[in-house]
Amino acid sequence: MFENLTDRLEGVFKKLRGHGRLTEENIQEAMGEVRKALLEADVNFGVVKEFIAAVADKAIGREVLTSLSPGQQVVKIVHDELVALLGSQAEPLKLDGRQPVTIMLAGLQGSGKTTTAAKLARLLKEKGRAPLLVPADVYRPAAIEQLQVLGGQVGVPVFASTAEQKPVEIARQAFTAASTGPYDTVIFDTAGRLHVDDELMVELREISQAVPLSEILFVADAMTGQDAVTVAEKFNADLEITGVILTKMEGDARGGAALSVKKVTGKPIKFVGVGESVDALEVFHPDRTASRILGMGDVLSLIEKAEAVVDQKSAEQLAKKIQKNAFTLEDFLDQIQQIKKMGSLEQIMGMIPGINKLKQIKDAPQPDQKELIKTEAIIRSMTLKERRNHRIINARRRVRIAEGSGTSVAEVNRVLKSYTMMLKMMKTMKGKGIMTGGKRRKL
Ligand code: GDP
What we know:
With 443 residues, this protein is of the alpha/beta class. The chain has helices at 3-17, 24-40, 45-59, 70-86, 113-126, 143-154, 167-180, 198-210, 226-239, 256-265, 286-293, 299-309, 312-323, 329-342, 345-349, 359-363, 369-380, 384-388, 395-405, 409-431, and strands spanning 101-106, 131-136, 185-190, 215-221, 243-247, 269-273, 281-283. The chain folds into 3 domains: 3-86, Four Helix Bundle (Hemerythrin (Met), subunit A) (Up-down Bundle); 101-286, P-loop containing nucleotide triphosphate hydrolases (Rossmann fold), CATH 3.40.50; 299-431, Signal recognition particle, SRP54 subunit, M-domain (434 Repressor (Amino-terminal Domain), Orthogonal Bundle), CATH 1.10.260.
């Protein structure tokens, strides 16, 4: 997500970092490069112009805070402007008020509506709601079946519509069924076309007049960049959308649609699709996204995720140990247990700022659950002394550990190697100033 833009912006800020004081000229030059980077990321031209003007205005002639270097100050201004551009804060779905809540998904064909309908239903079900999925795409062959299959996957009932019915008729019947049945949320999956056409808009308007809609969410493929924004404008003009869902964000290295759509349509991005599987839908957070774009990683998400399973105290202890180069095999064992709870190591590493720069992490083999269990067994077969000082583990001890854990010497060697690699990595991270703060540093 956003890799190209992040790389470009990191380059711009690196240059600024070298200056003790920033002159108007430095800032203008940097802004010229930010402008180029945004245009290359396919951000709307007008949006870029306004953005650069706002940043330059705030950066030039501003008192430099003593706690920040001038370069950092510019990064902070850019960060704040990016947050504003992306919509300031996460915009939740309108779930209170009239019940059942009704959500219509609209967008072009292939944008990801049907998939997103199921993802959204899953998310709402997890929150304790009782959704009903309604297939109202009677044109695309197999769209109804597709939603039925996806509904089965996420365990959400799918309204029994047929391709012979008119979409507005389906919507009306489904709304009545939901109002009298055990449902509190209705998600309508509608038909798309390859291009915007009047017939489609008439059909969608008919639905919106036939049933009271809580939300009309425009779904677009983020990778289509400015095209997605242009189509969003048309849908908004005709239908008064209430929000946007951008799909396929995980494959979007540029970010033009994400950075333009709120400003152009005035409507917030509410969710982003980040993969094909039914759990790959995330609430859109402007601040976290801005941090991610600036290469700070998604520290907040990481902290939230980590906090869910790691208690703060042991995290702090661990950070101290890393600081003091006192990370033992026992700590390694603890970490393995945490990782087992938290998800894939790669996913976690990806959220730490600056981590994409450390090639050895990217290239390091990612452990799977089976490997983790084996590693755990190997460390458990070591004596306390060995766990605290890996240097004493000689060939004889390795044979004993292998036997004790029911593995082989080669596997014991592999575990010791990944442990020493981890030690090395921690030293590198310390050297680069990563993980020294522990907290998300305010720029
Ligand atoms: P619809 O025509 O708008 O209903 O689009 P579909 O829901 O059928 O999606 C079109 C294609 O996009 C399917 O192959 C989906 O699996 C895929 N897709 C949808 N959302 C995402 C996403 O967030 N990431 C990725 N990689 N693929 C997605």
